[in-house]
Amino acid sequence: MVIVVAQLDAAVAAYRAAGFTVVPGGSHPGRSTRNALVVFEDGAYLELITYDAPSPQERWWQVLSHHGTGLVDFALLPQDIEAVVAAARQRGLARITGPHPGGRVRPDGVQLAWQTARQATHDLPFLCADVTPRALRVPEGEVRRHANGALGIAEVAVAVRDVEATLARWRAFLGAEAVADGQVRLADCRITLRPEPQRARGEGPCAVSLAVAGGSGKVELPGC
Questions:
Q1: pLDDT digits (tens, 9 = 90+) for 63-80
Q2: 2-215 has which CATH code?
């Protein structure tokens, strides 16, 4: 989950105060962005990202500058990004692009590399596949333990203009088995589609529910 923030240090402090373990991410070469991560036991994570300079060509910056901080995007981890993109195109998702190279430099100087692919509309997630070992980008161990008991992402609510059109794109994206009974089905996370055609921030993730130790309770994301 990508959460765009105005001030990274303040966001990190707020998440730590809410019981999350937050680790520095680093900076992205060729962009004006820096990030920090909240990584969960299941390998999913929240990315807190900020801009150090205006980047009007980037949608995340546009959302931040016009609508403020908050959830802005989400991603899936493909086993073979080229195969997933090719299959999606064959099923009719013509407006998907990629793979595109990306990367980040950690505060300790380690350089990370990945590839992304994106659909033109924002009711679908983008794909992000590691080139360098994933453990370098998404740390393991004690950093995945959180004082508030958060274990992972259980549900993502996505604001969409047209539920049926979005379901059709999901079928093209991941195959017919990704949709059942009018719902998107992923192995470890529920995707709930909310029809909000007039939403100012446009289509995209609008709420997140976290799995919590013990199977009960609720953890709020600061500022979301």
A1: 999 999 999 999 999 999
A2: 3.10.180.10
